[in-house]
UniProtKB/TrEMBL annotation, chain B:
InterPro entries membership: MetI-like, MetI-like_sf
Species the sequence originates in: Cohnella lubricantis
Chief subcellular location: membrane
This protein's name: Sugar ABC transporter permease
A cellular component annotation (GO) from this entry: plasma membrane
Length: 446, 296
């Protein structure tokens, strides 16, 4: 019996040793440098020579759509860069944003992040907190085109004086409106304020049978719209405190709480006064865009990408015009800075060289003619009207947003689906934001 | 005392078992052990400054969560209605396809289609068909007078979960059909004919002869589907992401939110461990019950 146990236990030990060996084989690349540094003299010199002569491969994850002209242009430009640089190979992988986010989280925690990737502005605070992003301050300051990037964009990507990401493209939001629908209702210009919008809702409905406005009540775009309306009424999600951390202060300040409540009241009024379709309370961005493109309602706060969808309804989209978003206290719009993340990699120099190519005028003219983060690219068409709003753009605070954007989405559902009191919803959202900040260690005073 | 030949056979047997054991340890035992371990740790990827042993704190936090009772109730509703609906549709279609009708082979081939469609494609297609503004199902229902105006089935609090459940039933019932059809084909026609001669009607023959003989296959597929459905993530995520306002959120969606949105792997692991324990208890009860039944 004892012998059998010994045999089995030695078998098990063997299996575990093999497992350890296997897992060691799969360990992250970051250890390569360490092991190569322990080589003997001649081997070390040879390895160094190999490293100097063999090209560096940069892993680049993108969410491009290969079926679109833009996607094809990106692939072409990346290939041009690859062909013109003997010392750099670019390994381009195409993933959807959802898949990319989860893969990035796994890769960052396994110490195997790509060298560069696209991303959403909502991920910036998280990835910075995960200490995955390279400090690009020195490389950026040495870059000859640095003054061509919008200063407020650079500022938004800077944390504690360090530039932690680069802009890939800008998704500034403007008010898009179907001029014909408004004219049919007898309006010569779009409303400028929330009150004007609400006061004209019934008129447009009566004259045209269509709603005056569209919103995204759910999904990734709903928090982007909510932060814009909050900013238009002079409140922000979280403010930086003296200790360098953040806090939502609505419940410490009755005036702020009242203003936040007014924003939720505005959402309720949009629904109750028929300014939006009843289903818009749970629309995602797909429904919001699709219904606007099809001319099912008159106005929406949206991005330049709508121009690319004109082919779906060419006649119906001919009358679309651009104006600044409606507001209450002060004009503001959401400025989505789609980041280009450069991770802590073994090839920082090559990674920045490629990143600067992606931010260059040539690439941006070919890929983002209406949404470039550079001041010298967008000079006409839709892009010009959008870029004119760059100075009033608001962005998310640079904190971990996973729990916060979910709480924002929940708050819209509470106010529009469950019809809870706006003030109660504002209080709940305030508490949820601070809970989320506390969980991620970013709450002031924690 | 083993002979040389027996020892050789034993070594050979161990050699064959070892790869499977190794894979089990690496791919099953280790991750499961890690999840259990993490459930007692403070493990928030965004707040690495705070770590260490959490005791039962993660479990307490999860149980105290505002949305835990909703997610638990949704999981039960989703699982029970899905499995019951799938079984009823499955047995009805299996009985129909077991009859000698013209084109039976074609019908048998067609009924498998929903099951072979990838979940993402099925989910997105149904989402489009259910859209209030341009979804074909709403248009049909309005034209047929079933509803007055288009309805946002996936966007309303009281219909989102039931709508996804309906789509899940549509997708999964063919598995029951195939399994039960195989079972039906093993039921002796002689016994059924003898019962008919003795005066048993269609319903009596079904309830007292056919159904008892499907007992083993029925219990097996129901049991498997209770587990598969309770832990299902993708169908709900593709169609509603658990919304609106968590109305279709089940426990696996909640685990995903803890892990991939809040990066709180301690709490995600504690909820996963609770689900794991519950499933393990169910499996153990089923195992003991079926062992006792076999012993007579």
């Amino acid at each position: 019996m004892k012998k059998r146990f010994v045999k089995w236990s030695s078998g098990l030990m063997g299996a575990l040793l093999l497992a350890s060996a296997l897992s060691a084989c799969g360990s992250n690349n970051g250890k390569e440098t360490e092991s190569s540094s322990s080589l003997g003299g001649s081997e070390s010199a040879s390895a160094a020579l190999d490293a100097a002569t063999s090209p560096v491969t940069l892993k680049f994850w993108s969410a491009l759509d290969p079926s679109t002209d833009q996607g094809k242009a990106i692939q072409q430009k990346v290939k041009e860069f690859d062909d013109s640089h003997d010392n750099i190979n670019v390994d381009l992988q195409v993933l959807s944003y959802d898949v990319m986010h989860d893969k990035l989280i796994a890769a960052i925690n396994a110490g195997d992040a790509p060298d560069l990737s696209w991303g959403l502005s909502e991920w910036f605070g998280e990835f910075n907190k995960l200490e995955a992003l390279a400090d690009l301050t020195d490389s950026f300051n040495a870059w000859s085109d640095k003054d061509k990037i919008y200063p407020n964009v650079v500022e938004a990507l800077t944390v504690d004086g360090k530039l932690k990401a680069l802009p890939n493209y800008l998704g500034i939001r403007a008010l898009l409106y179907h001029e014909n629908i408004l004219e049919e209702a007898g309006l010569s210009a779009p409303p400028k304020t929330w009150d004007e919008l609400l006061n004209n809702a019934q008129l447009v409905k009566d004259k045209t049978g269509k709603e005056i406005f569209g919103i995204a009540g759910a999904g990734v775009r709903s928090p982007q719209e909510l932060i814009m309306y909050l900013a238009q009424n002079g409140v922000s999600l979280a403010e930086k405190q003296a200790d360098g951390k953040y806090k939502n202060t609505w419940q410490d300040n009755q005036d702020q709480l009242a203003k936040a409540s007014e924003v939720f009241q505005f959402y309720q009024d949009l629904l109750d006064k028929g300014a939006i379709k009843p289903d818009a309370k749970t629309w995602g961005w797909e429904e919001e865009d699709q219904n606007f493109v099809l001319g099912q309602y008159a106005m929406v706060v949206d991005g330049t990408w709508i121009e690319g969808r004109a082919s779906e309804n060419p006649e119906g989209m001919k009358d679309v015009k651009i104006a600044p978003p409606i507001y209450k206290g002060s004009p503001a719009t959401f400025m989505e800075i789609a980041p280009l993340f450069v991770y802590k990699s073994k090839h920082p120099q090559e990674a920045f060289e490629f990143a600067s190519f992606l931010m260059g005028a040539d690439y941006q003219k070919a890929v983002n003619p209406s949404a470039a983060p550079r001041t010298d690219v967008v000079d006409g068409g839709w892009g010009k009207d959008f870029m004119a709003l760059a100075s009033q753009g608001v962005v998310f605070p640079p904190v971990s947003l996973g729990g916060i954007t979910q709480a924002m989405e929940d708050s819209l559902a509470r106010v529009m689906l469950k019809k809870e009191k706006p003030e109660d919803v504002a209080k709940q959202l305030s508490a949820a934001i601070n809970d989320s900040l506390k969980n991620s260690g970013e709450l002031s005073g924690s | 005392m083993l002979t040389l030949k027996e020892k050789r056979i034993r070594r050979l047997a161990i050699g064959f078992i070892l790869p499977a054991l190794l894979f089990f340890l690496l791919l099953n035992a280790y991750p499961l052990g890690q999840v259990l371990w993490d459930s007692f740790q403070i493990k928030n990827l965004l707040n690495k400054a705070v770590d260490g042993f959490a005791g039962l704190q993660n479990y307490k936090e999860v149980l105290r969560s505002e949305y835990f009772p909703t997610a638990l109730r949704n999981t039960v509703v989703w699982t029970v209605i899905s499995v019951a609906g799938e079984y009823l549709l499955g047995i009805a279609s299996a009985v129909a396809l077991n009859q000698r009708v013209k084109g039976r082979t074609l019908f048998r081939a067609m009924i498998i289609v929903p099951w072979v469609v990838p979940i993402v494609i099925a989910g997105m297609t149904w989402t489009w068909m259910l859209t209030p503004d341009y979804g074909i199902l709403n248009i049909w229902m309005v034209e047929l007078g079933i509803i007055d105006k288009p309805y946002y089935w996936l966007g309303e609090l009281n219909t989102a979960l039931l709508t996804v459940t309906f789509v899940n039933i549509w997708r999964s019932f063919p598995f029951y059909t195939i399994s039960l059809l195989a079972g039906l084909q093993s039921v002796s026609r002689d016994i059924i004919e003898a019962a008919a001669i003795d005066g048993a009607g269609v319903r009596r023959r079904f309830w007292h002869i056919v159904l008892p003989q499907l007992r083993t296959v029925s219990l097996t597929i129901i049991f498997i589907h209770i587990i598969w459905t309770a832990i299902n993530f993708d169908f709900i995520w593709v169609m509603t992401e658990g919304g609106p306002l968590h109305a279709s959120e089940t426990l696996p969606i909640m685990i995903y939110r803890y892990a991939m949105q809040e990066y709180n792997f301690g709490q995600a692991s504690s909820l996963a461990s609770m689900m794991l324990s519950f499933m393990a208890i169910c499996i153990a009860l089923y195992y003991f019950a079926s062992s006792r039944r076999q012993r007579g």
